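Problem 12. The chain below contains 275 residues. Write out its predicted structure in token notation.
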Amino acid sequence: MGPTLNTATAEPQIEIFDDREAVTQAIAKKLLTVITETLDEQDLAHVSLTGGGAGIATLKAVADTLSEDSANGVEWSRVHFWWGDERLLPRDETDRNETQARQALLDTLVGEHGLPEENIHAMPTSEDAAHPAAGAEMYAQELEAYAPEGGIEGPNGSLNMPEMDIMLLGVGPDGHINSLFPGKESLSVTGQSTTGESDAPPQLGPPMRVTLTFDAVHTAKRVWTAVAGQDKADAAAKAFVDSPDISEVPAANARGTHQTVWHLDRAAAEQLPQT
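Solution.
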């Protein structure tokens, strides 16, 4: 049985901006606001990061905001960062999402704003795990270490992972999110937080990946996509047809429990169905 749309989650909202810079600045501002509000209500905030051009540009926009407003009020010692997916490559390899995120924001938070290094939960490297399945199991154990007692409710039973207050996602030109690619078996994995992918499309870089599953995505409170560029327009349009094919466009199933927001620039939004 193939993947199906999780209609029990929050319906997606669409916000359109002039260009990628406007998209990333808007998400960065909202990210800081929601983290602050979350920490007013609970002890910790959990944020899942993404790679890709718009995802990393968003983190750079957060860093720029911090440099302009050092008294931003966020207690970074209470924030934990996770990833939606990662390339199984050597540590510090420039193609790793972790490496790019550290350069864009996380190293600055550690060095200047009090983020503990142990609050950065990177996915395994190729030195840690010989193959994606092993890496997925390692990350599942890391997630479990921060899960509430009894886990959290997922669409197919409880998952042993923390509830992500914010999950940032990019969308590929082929409609993928995280390392959940069209037509792959990983789209149908249920009842677990992570899975391995050994055969990512060659045009998208290294083939071996570790990724969160749809079940994990669907436990996040807020799922925000950052989508910019004309090359994303076709995927965005297919995600918003009346009955999207999740096997063809996994991004259509990017949904949170409380909120789902697609942030698109005008180029990425140009083929969206008229409402």
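Discussion. Residues 13 and 243 are 16 Å apart (CA to CA). Students who got a different answer should revisit the alignment rule from Section 12.3.
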